Amino acid sequence: MLGGIMYDPEKGKARRLSLGITVKELADRIGCSTQAVYQWERGERRPSLTTFVVIAHHLGIPIASLVEQAGGDENSARAIQLAEIHRIAKEKNDER
Asked: Which of 37, 40, 53, 95 is least crowded, fewest Cβ atoms below 10 Å from its Cβ?
């Protein structure tokens, strides 16, 4: 659980595979172990909100694309929006 946001392991894995990125490549890009990526993709663990944002960034998709459709609530929607704003601001800052 990420403050009400649930990471969807199937969506993350499907996107990674569609991009032709290996587990090791994704792990290297986001700065974690391959074991962690495997555990997220099997649904054994969930990434932190910060890591969730980084995964979406490196997969080139909006954060909402990696969220399980579990009814959601207003706080979940706000958390997703704030995380997306954070990712965009970081990208802009990195461009400088």
From this structure: 95
